[in-house]
TrEMBL record:
PANTHER family: OS07G0260300 PROTEIN, THIOREDOXIN-DEPENDENT PEROXIREDOXIN
PROSITE patterns cross-referenced by the UniProt entry: THIOREDOXIN_2
InterPro entries per the UniProt record, alphabetical: AhpC/TSA, PRX-like1, Thioredoxin-like_sf, Thioredoxin_domain
The protein, known as: AhpC/TSA family protein
Domain Thioredoxin: 9-144
Molecular function as annotated in GO: antioxidant activity; oxidoreductase activity
């Protein structure tokens, strides 16, 4: 399992639309997912230890960001052929078990992950109300284990700034995680 780091934020890059099936049986797109002040697009999966280490914090932060007009959507782009834990049925189970407060959708063709330039799980793309990229950093200092409970909440603070000003912080620490499991044809 290769650990990768996300590139730096390309401020102003426009969000790319998608139409993906969610674990709720509905189709989701950019317009249905966005909030008044912005949208957090998250590439996650079920099996990655980096994602598992932050799931409770992710749910907490997304719930709090909703109060500031920032919505979120989670996209699973891994090929489940080699990683059965990432199957759609397991996506449904995980979303229910963890009470995900955001749509959890499957990028079966992997086209959306490629279009966004997603490299790892988790990979966070924080957009303002005009759907311009303002955050491409980590959730917090967690790695394969959760960081201390009182650790700085990088993503939450960055997206709160986006909600208040429309701009993300200049200094962002990249996210780190498992590589996207690309389909081999």
């Amino acid at each position: 399992m290769a650990s990768l780091e996300t590139p730096v934020c390309e401020f102003g890059w426009k969000a790319i639309d998608f139409d993906l099936l969610g674990v709720d049986g509905k189709r989701h797109n950019l317009n249905s997912a966005k909030g008044e002040k912005g949208l957090l697009v998250m590439f996650i999966c079920n099996h990655c230890p980096y994602v598992k280490a932050i799931q409770d914090r992710l749910v907490r932060d997304v719930n709090e960001l909703k109060q500031y007009g920032i919505n979120a959507i989670a996209i699973m782009s891994n090929d489940p052929a080699d990683y059965p834990e990432d199957s759609f049925d397991n996506m449904v189970r995980i979303a229910k078990e963890l009470n995900y407060p955001f749509p959890y959708v499957w990028d079966e063709t992997q086209e959306i992950a490629k279009a966004y330039g997603a490299v790892c799980t988790p990979d966070f793309f924080g957009f303002n109300g005009a759907l311009e990229l303002q955050y491409r950093g980590r959730l917090d200092a967690s790695r394969k284990e959760a960081a201390a409970p009182d650790v700085r909440r990088d993503l939450f603070e960055g997206m709160l700034q986006v909600a208040r000003t429309g701009r993300g912080p200049e200094d962002q620490i990249p996210s780190i995680g498992c590589s996207i499991k690309w389909r081999t044809e």
